[in-house]
């Protein structure tokens, strides 16, 4: 993060570099035009002195006159007739160069053989070298003024320089005195504002920072007014006016201090509480001091020193000083970029590792490794424009730089907002989260992904805008073309279709959640929950299919074959997967008839258990052992549901044959009364239904009773009732019989000792098999 703060300071310095020299062009455009006229005159003199160049000029003039005469005779101008100025311009550019006619011949030959790839490459490289030589020549040319001054060819009016310096020094001292007094008065409010900003949020801190910057700007305006007042009072008469030199000095003061106000707004070195950007105190002081130095160098050099040199000496000296000011300022910024190159790269790499998006992390890491190359290229481009096109460099640099700043700032602002939403999610009101708890989860599951795509689109749009601003690509022309318009409109419509489909799906899901929400006075049944879940799944499939087809149609894909193919595939599936179709149809009717719901205990296809889930083609049941059974609806011919309306526990109690039936019934009724005294009373409807004796078994008399319970509670109520029956029967000594078997020993063999004893044993044991209840056929009576 520390290194990232250094990169921000470097970028701010680059912005000041590109704006200040360009703004200074308006102050001395007329002076530069006079210098260019002098240079053009020198070039024309060189052409006339050179025999070859003079002959070429005469030939061009004759050719132009002949073409003009022919055009007058025919009554129409040639389609590609050139003006004399256009023909003379290449000669003037080649003045003083012995090979100028040869260059003209080379250009003609290249135009004649433009189809040859090698010649075209050679022509391109030659033009590139010529342009580089032209830049170098125009860069060295201003320095000739210093050589001529050193030789004494251009005199300097030192008396006038001293007079101007005295006037400038007086007004600047007055302006800075007014500025310091105004700032001292206004700084009394800053501690209190800083304390308020420390206790408040970012919005209040931004407001206070803007307010303090406005106060600083007012202080600058007051200093500028004091300087003008001193300049007027210096003549003794207010009507005398301010001299040009004093006006230049005060304008330089005003621009430099406003630039410093902007730097203080960004770095805020003296008040940490007001600082918006993540600069440390050390970093803010570092960049603030160095960029203040750069501002003073550029502003006072271009707005004061250069005009004074033009007045005191000549325009040649002014051009030389202007070149030196911009050149040294460029070197200063290049040195700052080079010094902080590794630090910024490491800081950006560390920051990229904290990002959640892999793509954004990689892009930012690559940008950190190549940022200094972009800075070098930007500085070089601004310097070349300023050198080669001094007259329109102002509009070019200010226009391109201003639009670049707006594009980058807008892209960063939108990306920061999107990143904040992606990271923190979309907040919903508390009442909406209570009524629709799933809406917040769905929004934060899908919206961040959509916002990541939008953030990538913002990055691409910013890059394309920068290319359009600097003339690398003609993005606007491509968008205005038929292909670009069709492509953008198609993909934009597809995106809108997807967005509208998502909103419709979100609305449907929210409506289903609202219907399934249990509120006071309304309980959601298992049938409603099952039907709405099926509706949710079906609507999701329909919306996805429709949105996909419409989006493909908007981007130019012919969906007719897709629809036809889907119909053929559906027909083939309907023939080849009849069981699947039967599953779906049977499942739909089962749900319409409300035969099965989630949570019911049912018997389906011979399996008894609890329903855990229902889909459009199958039911999932978990039995008493915990085994899960998935049963397709096509195999269901009957559904037995134990959870409809109410249930019964049927108690079949057996007593011995010697038991009084009335006493047994009274004992069963007493057991029911004890059951009602427990918590099970809320699950019981009505009284005990006594049916009486229903069967005479082999060893017992069966007495049946029935208890009406809430659905699903018949088993728990029955188990509790059986416990109370056993308890009451034990208290009243009522026997609950159980099957018994008696075994007898066989007779001894014939002829045994008469006195032999006849052994007989009797064994009583409980039988585990109910089939043993019946007496054996060979059992003696």
Secondary-structure blueprint of this entry?
Elements: H1 2-24, H2 29-49, H3 51-74, H4 84-93, H5 100-112, H6 117-140, H7 144-151, H8 158-186, H9 190-199, H10 202-233, H11 244-267, H12 281-312, H13 315-339, H14 341-352, H15 358-388, H16 393-424, H17 430-435, H18 437-469, H19 475-480, H20 482-515, H21 526-554, H22 560-576, H23 578-592, E1 601-604, E2 607-614, E3 618-622, E4 628-632, E5 639-641, E6 647-655, H24 661-676, E7 684-696, E8 701-709, H25 714-731, E9 740-743, E10 763-766
Antiparallel strand pairs: 1-2, 1-5, 2-3, 3-4, 6-8, 7-8, 9-10
Helix pairs in contact: 1-12, 1-13, 1-14, 1-15, 1-16, 3-4, 7-13, 8-10, 8-11, 9-10, 10-11, 11-12, 12-13, 13-15, 14-15, 15-16, 16-18, 18-20, 20-21, 24-25
């Amino acid at each position: 993060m520390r290194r990232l703060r250094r990169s921000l300071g470097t970028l701010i310095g680059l912005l000041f570099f590109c704006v200040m020299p360009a703004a200074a062009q308006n102050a001395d455009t007329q002076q530069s035009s006079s210098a260019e006229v002098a240079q053009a005159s020198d070039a024309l003199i060189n052409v006339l002195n050179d025999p070859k160049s003079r002959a070429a000029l005469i030939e061009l003039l004759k050719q132009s006159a002949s073409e003009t005469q022919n055009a007058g005779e025919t009554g129409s101008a040639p389609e590609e007739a050139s003006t004399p100025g256009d023909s003379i311009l290449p000669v003037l550019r080649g003045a003083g160069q012995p090979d100028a006619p040869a260059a003209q011949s080379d250009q003609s030959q290249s135009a004649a053989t433009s189809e040859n790839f090698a010649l075209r490459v050679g022509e391109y490289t030659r033009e590139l070298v010529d342009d580089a030589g032209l830049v170098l020549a125009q860069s060295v040319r201003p320095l000739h003024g210093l050589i001529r001054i050193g030789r004494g060819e251009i005199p300097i009016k030192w008396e006038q320089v001293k007079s101007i310096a005295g006037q400038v020094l007086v007004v600047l001292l007055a302006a800075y005195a007014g500025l310091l007094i105004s700032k001292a008065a206004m700084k009394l409010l800053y501690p209190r504002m800083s304390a308020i900003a420390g206790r408040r949020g970012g919005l209040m801190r931004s407001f206070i920072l803007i307010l303090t910057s406005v106060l600083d700007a007012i202080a600058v305006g007051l200093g500028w007014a004091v300087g003008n007042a001193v300049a007027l009072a210096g003549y003794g008469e207010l009507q005398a006016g301010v001299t040009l030199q004093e006006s230049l000095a005060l304008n330089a003061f005003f621009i430099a201090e406003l630039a410093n106000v902007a730097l203080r707004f960004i770095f805020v070195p003296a008040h940490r509480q007001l600082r918006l950007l993540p600069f440390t105190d050390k970093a803010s002081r570092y960049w603030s001091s160095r960029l203040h130095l750069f501002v003073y160098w550029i502003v006072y050099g271009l707005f004061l020193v250069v005009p004074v040199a033009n007045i005191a000496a000549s325009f040649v000296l002014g051009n030389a000083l202007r070149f030196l000011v911009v050149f040294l300022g460029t070197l200063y910024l290049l040195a700052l970029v080079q010094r902080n190159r590794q630090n910024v790269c490491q800081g950006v790499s560390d920051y990229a590792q904290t990002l959640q998006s892999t793509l954004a992390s990689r892009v930012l890491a690559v940008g950190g490794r190549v940022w200094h190359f972009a800075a070098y290229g930007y500085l070089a481009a601004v310097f070349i424009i300023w050198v080669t096109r001094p007259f329109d460099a102002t509009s070019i640099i200010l226009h391109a730089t201003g639009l670049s700043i707006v594009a980058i700032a807008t892209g960063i602002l939108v990306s920061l907002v999107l990143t904040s939403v992606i990271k923190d999610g979309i907040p919903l009101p508390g009442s909406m989260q209570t009524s629709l708890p799933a809406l917040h989860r769905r929004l934060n599951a899908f919206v961040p992904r959509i916002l990541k795509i939008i953030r990538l689109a913002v990055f691409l749009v910013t890059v394309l805008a920068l290319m359009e601003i600097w003339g690398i690509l003609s993005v606007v022309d491509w968008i205005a073309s038929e292909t670009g318009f069709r492509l953008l409109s198609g993909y934009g419509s597809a995106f809108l279709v997807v967005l509208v489909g998502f909103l419709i799906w979100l609305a449907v899901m929210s409506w289903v959640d609202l219907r399934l929400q249990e509120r006071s006075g309304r309980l959601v049944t298992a049938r409603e929950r099952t039907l709405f879940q099926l509706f949710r799944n079906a609507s999701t499939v329909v919306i996805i299919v429709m949105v996909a087809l419409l989006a493909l149609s908007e981007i130019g894909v012919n969906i007719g074959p897709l629809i036809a193919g889907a119909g053929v595939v559906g027909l083939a599936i309907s023939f080849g997967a009849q069981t699947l179709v039967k599953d779906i149809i049977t499942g739909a009717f089962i749900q319409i008839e409300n035969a099965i719901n989630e949570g019911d205990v049912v018997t389906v296809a011979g399996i008894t258990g609890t329903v855990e889930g229902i889909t459009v083609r199958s039911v999932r049941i978990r039995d008493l052992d915990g085994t899960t059974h998935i049963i397709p609806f096509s195999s269901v011919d009957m559904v037995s549901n134990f959870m409809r309306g109410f249930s019964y526990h049927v108690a079949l109690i057996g007593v011995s044959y010697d038991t009084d039936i009335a006493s047994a019934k009274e004992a069963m009724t007493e057991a029911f009364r004890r059951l009602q005294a427990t918590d099970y009373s809320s699950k019981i409807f009505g009284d005990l239904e006594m049916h009486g004796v229903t069967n005479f078994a082999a060893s017992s008399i069966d007495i049946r009773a029935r208890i009406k319970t809430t659905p699903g509670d018949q088993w728990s109520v029955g188990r509790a009732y059986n416990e109370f029956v056993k308890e009451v029967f034990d208290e009243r000594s009522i026997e609950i019989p159980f099957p018994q078997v008696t075994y007898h020993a066989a007779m001894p063999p014939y002829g045994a000792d008469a006195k032999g004893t006849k052994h007989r044993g009797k064994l009583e044991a409980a039988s585990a098999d109910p089939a043993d209840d019946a007496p054996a056929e060979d059992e003696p009576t």
